[in-house]
Design a protein that fits this description.
Blueprint lengths: L7 E5 L5 H11 L4 E5 L3 H7 L14 H8 L4 E4 L2 H7 L2 E4 L19 H13 L3 E6 L7 H10 L10 E6 L9 H6 L4 E5 L2 H11 L8 E4 L1 H32 L3 H9 L20 H14 L3 H28 L8 E5 L14 H11 L3 E5 L5 H8 L15 H4 L4 E4 L3 H5 L4 E4 L4 H4 L3 H4 L8 E4 L6 H6 L3 E4 L10
Parallel strand pairs: 1-2, 1-4, 2-3, 4-5, 5-6, 7-8, 9-10, 9-12, 10-11, 12-13, 13-14
Antiparallel strand pairs: 6-7
Helix pairs in contact: 1-3, 5-6, 9-11, 9-12, 11-12, 12-13
Bound molecules: uridine-5'-diphosphate-xylopyranose (UDX) and adenosine-5'-diphosphate.
Adenosine-5'-diphosphate binds next to helix 5.
């Protein structure tokens, strides 16, 4: 295969990674035809919707990229076989969640969708096909893919051949488009130099050569797990220090600034919060833990597992302290939850800290008014394993559920109605609009004495104090003498 021979790309999986990544490739490579396929008809219909606000993934800037490329050299389809057969490069960008049962349950990645894709490619590909692992995968998954593809080569295969590459995606949600357009690096792992060159030539349309790193397959697979493990470890580290700050009178923002100016540590990823969420960090670390145990390295496994343990602890710590500050009970009390997505600028709730915190509070019998600018009501219901109840009438007395101590929740459309009648406001996602709230105007809507629990450090403490509200901020020890 020669450099110029990649003409047609197929991406299997139109999710948070496949959709935006292929949109940017199509946008930057008008000479290539890119087809994104998915079994999920609804998802594909949403990618094809003429109303760009209906795209299934919310990412700043994504609508403009899709608008430029869709219908030109970017298409979204459910015709999986057709697209694979027409492509000379197939990206596998499907879900790889943590296994929920069987061998490795709770830690190992569930590779059934990846395996199904490899079998599908083996069955319907034509001529030489480069298969690119885009999903984050356990180290040595490429071996399994190679073996499945090898079974389709040889006699009676009409000359079909395959090369397997690993090309992990490092985009972060909320900044996916800028991460894709200006990546820190593009990593390509493989054994076939021509295939590596062919993929590098795709990225070279907009990424400088020196940022395109080439490694062997296993280093590439492991680098993705390692990058996520290191990033998550920084968050657990700063969250552990946040708890210690609260106990000692230090302020985690000051500590983060002080250590972040050390050029060896650097200032990024030192924001204390309610714990990390998202589809990658926990899944990838648990996968690393599983692999380390499998390869006889229990101490290494324990080391990385503690990053996840600390994260879970931080989420429960926040719900516990809400209960404690509200006189030891939230049963029947109305609490306002601002933000449900796992971070700002995304509609994704996978592993969002809000899920665990809200579930804890529902268990305690709280009545939660939940606001998020992008997350749909149905998604919250699935995450909480509880249907939404009707929005309560502000003039009516406590509901039957509230009186019986049953936890309930409902979704709200604006911040004022969310906080109305609440004993406390919990800020769980750092949406920009929550930084600009007028606490003077909101305070009279709350039931006094009221608390603000700012798990994202977005409020101005002076403005909250002037409004007569009590404030807990993550990692803020205040003055331990006067506390
Ligand atoms: C992450 C990696 O950053 C990305 O490279 C990889 O491809 C996928 O996983 P993502 O999960 O989309 O990306 O978002 P990220 O910005 O890394 O945030 C993950 C979680 O950590 C969020 O819940 C975020 O709120 C939290 N976080 C991040 C903090 O609590 N503090 C920080 O300083 C940074
Ligand atoms: P990610 O965040 O990694 O992009 P998502 O769960 O958002 O993960 O997206 C993965 C997508 O892959 C889903 O839309 C799912 O329907 C799709 N998918 C999984 N297996 C297959 C398959 N064999 N063929 C086509 N699409 C698939």
């Amino acid at each position: 295969m020669t450099l110029s021979s990649v003409r047609s790309i197929c991406c299997i999986g139109a999710g948070y990674v496949g959709g935006p990544t292929m949109a940017v490739i199509a946008d930057r490579c008008p000479d290539l035809h890119v087809t994104v396929v998915d079994l999920n008809e609804q998802r594909i219909a949403a990618w094809n919707d003429s109303d760009l606000s209906k795209l299934p993934v919310y990412e700043p800037g994504l609508d403009a990229v899709v608008e430029r490329a869709r219908g030109r050299n970017l298409s979204f389809s459910t015709a999986v076989d057709e697209a694979i057969a027409a492509a000379d490069m197939v990206f596998i960008s499907v879900n790889t969640p943590t296994k929920t049962k069987g061998l490795g349950a709770g830690q190992a990645s569930d590779l059934r969708w990846v395996e199904a894709c490899a079998r599908q490619v083996a069955k319907v590909a034509t001529a030489h096909t480069i298969v690119v692992e885009k999903s984050t995968l356990p180290v040595r998954t490429a071996q399994a893919i190679k073996e499945i593809l090898a079974s389709a080569q040889g006699e009676g295969s009409d000359g079909r051949t395959f090369s397997v590459l690993s090309n992990p995606e490092f985009l972060a949600e909320g900044t996916a488009i800028s991460d894709l357009e200006g990546p820190d690096r593009v990593l390509i792992g493989g054994e076939d130099a021509a295939a590596i060159d062919a993929l590098a030539a795709v990225y070279a349309h907009w990424v400088p050569q020196e940022k395109i790193l080439r490694t062997n397959l296993w280093s590439s697979e492991l680098s993705k797990l390692t990058a996520n493990a290191f990033l998550a470890q920084r968050i657990s580290s700063i969250n552990s220090i946040a708890a210690f700050c609260e106990a000692t009178g230090a302020d985690v923002r000051e500590v983060a600034r002080a250590i972040g100016t050390d050029s060896r540590i650097g200032p990024k990823f030192l924001q204390a919060g309610p714990g990390f969420g998202g589809s990658c960090f926990q899944k990838d670390i648990l996968n690393l833990v599983y692999l380390c145990r499998h390869f006889g390295l229990p101490e290494v496994a324990d080391y990385w597992e503690s990053v996840v343990t600390l994260n879970t602890w931080q989420q429960h710590r926040i719900s516990r302290l809400v209960v404690q500050k509200l006189f030891g009970t939230v049963t029947g009390k109305r609490l306002a939850v601002l933000g449900f997505a796992f971070k700002a600028d995304t509609n994704d709730t996978r592993e969002a800290p809000a899920i665990r915190i809200c579930r804890d509070l529902l268990e305690e019998g709280a009545q939660l008014a939940i606001h998020d600018p992008k997350v749909e009501t149905d998604q919250i219901a699935r995450d909480l394993h509880l249907e939404a109840s009707a929005v309560p009438d502000p003039n009516a007395g406590p509901s039957r559920a509230a009186l019986s101590g049953e936890g309930t929740w409902w979704k709200t459309d604006d911040v004022a109605s969310t906080v109305s009648g609440a004993d406390a406001v919990l800020i769980l996602t750092e949406w920009k609009q929550y930084r600009q709230l007028d606490w003077q105007a909101l305070a009279p809507l709350l039931r006094q004495p009221a608390w603000i629990f700012d798990a994202r450090s977005v409020v101005d403490p002076a403005a909250v104090a002037t409004a007569g509200l009590q404030l807990w901020r993550v990692g803020d020890g205040g003055d331990p003498i006067t506390r």
